[in-house]
Design brief:
two-stranded antiparallel sheet; elongated; mainly beta
């Protein structure tokens, strides 16, 4: 991709699709190993959640000074 200094480029198209999962449980009893599953319930949502990642990049050309100041 070629752009001029100060122009913005957008990179996109990275999609992530997920189905929401909710866990409900009885306090303390749902955390017990082996039998905790008796006191827990997982539900999967009916809808899908879609996320799109877009990255905006604005390059700037910085010219180096011939004689940079010395500190």
């Amino acid at each position: 991709v070629l752009v001029k200094s100060g122009q913005t480029v957008v990179i996109g198209g990275l999609l992530k699709e997920t189905k929401p999962v909710t866990t409900t449980k009885v306090p303390i009893l749902g955390d017990i190993p082996i039998i905790g599953w008796l006191f827990r319930k997982k539900t999967t949502g009916t809808g899908e959640e879609k996320r799109d990642l877009m990255i905006f990049i604005t390059p700037r050309v910085v010219k180096q000074l011939e004689n940079p100041p010395k500190d």
